[in-house]
Design goal:
The structure is a homodimer. Chain A has 9 helices and 12 strands. Chain A is an alpha+beta fold. In chain A, the strands form 3 sheets. The first copy, chain A, has a 7-stranded antiparallel β-sheet. The first copy, chain A, is globular, with a radius of gyration of 18 Å. Chains A and B meet through helix 9 of A and helix 9 of B.
Chain lengths: 304, 304
Amino acid sequence: MNTETRLQDEFPTRLERKVEMFQRLDPVVHTPEERWAEGPLSEERVREFDEKGFMFFESFFSQDEMDGFIRELKDYEDDEDLKVSEGTILEPGKEEIRSIFGIHEISERFDRLTRDPKLLAMVKQLLDSDVYIHQSRINYKPGFKGKGFNWHSDFETWHSEDGMPKMRCLSCSIVMTDNNEFNGPLMLIPGSHKNFIPCVGRTPENNYKKSLKSQTIGVPDDRSLQQLMDEGFIEAPKGPAGSLIVFECNTLHGSNTNMSCWPRSNLFFVYNSVHNTLVEPFCGNKPRPQFLANRKNWEPLKPV
Amino acid sequence: MNTETRLQDEFPTRLERKVEMFQRLDPVVHTPEERWAEGPLSEERVREFDEKGFMFFESFFSQDEMDGFIRELKDYEDDEDLKVSEGTILEPGKEEIRSIFGIHEISERFDRLTRDPKLLAMVKQLLDSDVYIHQSRINYKPGFKGKGFNWHSDFETWHSEDGMPKMRCLSCSIVMTDNNEFNGPLMLIPGSHKNFIPCVGRTPENNYKKSLKSQTIGVPDDRSLQQLMDEGFIEAPKGPAGSLIVFECNTLHGSNTNMSCWPRSNLFFVYNSVHNTLVEPFCGNKPRPQFLANRKNWEPLKPV
């Protein structure tokens, strides 16, 4: 690592001792407020994202648009080669697929979706810059057995384990199957993105092999979580296939087990600003694999 | 077991091979339909219970009435003697209390609550007879760590492991802390009480020592569950402390992990008809302990 890429660590985490949470330093919406009304999102929606750290669009894509993606997903579920690929994460102790990373590199169809003009215009409005895909994934939750995800900030991991310098990044989660109250929908804590919670505990090398099945390092402490839940409560947006949740990289989120018979699949595209490309991981470990943290292709995405 | 108490097993379960679910033989509401309007429940509510297998009353008891109970519960949480009592079930692998059985025998206050005139009149209307307490319990779900309960029919266990002959029994679940979408509220499948699902697998002796932590014997198969969920969906009634869920002994129910910071405690009183007292367990094992299945005191409850 040369001195030019060595940045000051503004978000120290994975520490030996507990440090109190502190206010995020970076803007949430990177476009200056006087330009919030310029669209495509209304000023109202931009303000909502700024305050809550996420926003929900019911049926952002139509059922017709979704059908092709859903057919392709079904094929992947039966693909034995894919099951043993490095970017495919199985359920703890099981043979079932939990996540497929790098989905936009596997599939032309999903690659084009990352460059959907509606999606891209909105992302660029919020981050006020060109963007590229930092990570993409599908999370599966089969009926009766799909496990949940503990509360966490994506940015905490991306900063410490991937070397993402600042909070200028967001996720688009596209609901591939109807999400309801009972199939383990994404839960978010409104307003939680305004604070950074330093976590305790050194990061083991290759931590991702464990953390992608069940995260125990880089999880916020109960007291900070309680404070943020008491202030902002919890929301779990629900809607039909094609609905969209856009959430800021530091918004605390998680999800519960799917106890219903209805499978739940969500697609995640992580857009990072081209002014926020990765440096060496701040935790000091070697970088995680490319399928988790793109270090090769930071070309600005162009709408299809 | 003498021949007088040997009844025909109308609900065979814990079998070697899968047998399809079949219609329940017993009425849901035992009062004949022409007397449903006699009260205290309205005919409409009686019909709701008959069709869905449960009903919900927001703030059935006032917050004032609840406060005393909640204070008493807090004392129990810190009671080390109670932690090692036979009726106290700890979380799998943990030191935290999951359930306290026989709460109405421990506490004069909870004993009186089982004989609350409003509660008792309603129960007797639905079961059309005098009743006694078959079982009572508190289920705790502390914030962040309270585990859930798999889908099950109480009657399936009470019949096979406790020798309850017929479906003439119901549970009153009183919400001791506010129940919301995120602290693992009780989930029920509307209409599921109309079918009996025979389960596969012999019952080990002392099965309860395991099943009360995590149930694996006597759980309905995924295919039957899916059919009933597709027909009736799932409901999870929510409300403030003092709210009440009345559900039929064969209604399928379960609950998810509490991922919120807000603890959830529910109180359960199981009322059985005095015409439905226990015989020898139909699974052929020795009876479970008194704290799980009352075999000693079948005196009709009198309102306080």
